Amino acid sequence: MNFVAAIGRTFIGFLSAVGRLSLFTGAALSHCVRPPFYPRLIWRQVVEIGYYSLPVVGLTAIFTGMVLALQSYTGFSRFNAEGAIANVVVLSMTRELAPVLAGLMVAGRIGAAMAAEIGTMSVTEQIDALTTLSTNPYKYLVAPRLIAALMMLPALVLTADIIGVFGGYIISIHKLGFNPSVYLRHTWDFMKAMDVISGLVKAGVFGFIVALMGCYHGYHSRGGAEGVGAATTNAVVSASILILSFNYVLTEMFFAR
Amino acid sequence: MADDTPKIAIRGLHKSFGRNHVLRGIDLDIGKAESVVVIGGSGSGKSVLLKNILGLLRPEKGSIKVDGEEVVGMGWTERERVLRKFGMLFQGAALFDSLRVWENVAFGLIEGRGMSRRAAKDVAIEKLAAVGLGADVGELSPAELSGGMKKRVGLARAIAAEPEILFFDEPTTGLDPIMGDVINDLIVDCVRKLGATALSITHDMASARKIADRVAMIYRGQIIWAGPVKTIDSSGNAYVDQFIHGRAEGPIQMEVRSA
User: Fold this and answer.
1) From CA A221, how far away is CA B139, in angstroms rounded?
2) Any alpha helices (H) in chain B, and if so which ranges?
3) Per CB distance under 8 Å, which residues of A are interface residues toward B?
4) Radius of gyration from C-alpha coordinates of chain B
5) DSSP string for B164-178
6) I want to staple B94 with a disulfide (CB 3.0 to 4.6 A). Which of A18, A109, A246, B90 is the partner?
7) Is the pTM of this model over 0.80?
8) Which of A9, A130, A132 to mutate to test the interface with B (most CBs of B within 10 A)?
9) How many beta-carbon pairs below 8 A join chains A and B?
10) Which are the contacts of A59, defined by CB distance < 8 A and separation ≥ 6?
């Protein structure tokens, strides 16, 4: 009987968490589109998410592009299809690797920071203080982060697309001996606008997920340092899982026939 | 005819967290320009009472009226209007780490009331002076302040917009007795100058005696005694007597489990 009760408790707990998250998302979205807006806070988050994430996303992209070229060559050379390397690199980077890897890296960097900052504010009553000072915490803390992440992830992914393709180019030209102009022509010919657009749409969704999870877990953290630690972990883990799940859903939407 | 509507009127207030029934029918009136101190042990529901009045928690049952206006169940826009009447000093001061001290004090003026940063800074420096802090402190970050200074900045922030009602959550907790007394004097001074209504919660009797016109004792989620501060030593209530003298023996039993 205890076993059944435990399953029931877990299920009810899951449903109430889904309910809480849905209400939080609804409230956060409604505050994103209603004034007052806080341009200064949005700009601060734009710099934090966009500018300071550039090195980590750039490094991830360049090494991924380089490895992709190297691995494709090892595989494709077995059946004389080395010419497809440019195609594989540009398609993989724009459609999948740049948005997913940038999303995961930003989840680790920004999602964790948001959860820790908002979580600390929650357990030290700073969020209550905001309310007593006639300032809506959703508007002041959550909305600027959501808006900035939604805008900056696509910008980061576009940069990662270029850097990733460049990484593949460097390896193909300098290590594998490809002709530069042929490689670039192949890259350009194979790439379609939809490849880039789908990646940027994914990036926008992933940015929203990262900020939402960071803010949600931070906002609901309780119980001092331990609670903030748990919120940080939960923010990164849940954002990573949601990114991978939504990546499948969006890929299915864009490319399944 | 004099308006005798209480500034805050609480009736039959209930609040639970799961199976923990914290407030079990609180009835309390706070008159205009009156300073009421709610005393009670840890976990008796003092902070929950304050948070319900401010709308930070939603009660299951009961009524809270501010200037005769029901605030339970209010939407954000209406609540924002009512919250402009309030200023609050939090137990840990709750200063915003990411802002400088003067920005903390001016926060409600800039973000809540749309005042320009320059004008708000002037007000912030004036309010810092009112709590005995110089303009140079305004440029520091909250992390650079001692506990007593944080409380003073929290008090300056609470009075910055000259609210009609001031709440003090454990104002002297964590301070040495001298600094505690300094904070008590500042509270009395600020409340008197503003002509504000004050509600404080504390378990520090020295603080309660200094800042209260009237004292109410909360025990197991109910107000079990309320009366003028002068009568607290002759309340005739065994619970109040035990609490104000800090005795382990008496009707209030602390749950202490031995290993």
Assistant:
1) 30
2) 46-54, 76-83, 101-107, 117-130, 135-138, 147-159, 177-194, 205-211, 238-245
3) 117, 120-121, 124-126, 128-129, 131-136, 140
4) 19
5) SEEEEESTTTTS-HH
6) B90
7) yes
8) A132
9) 56
10) none
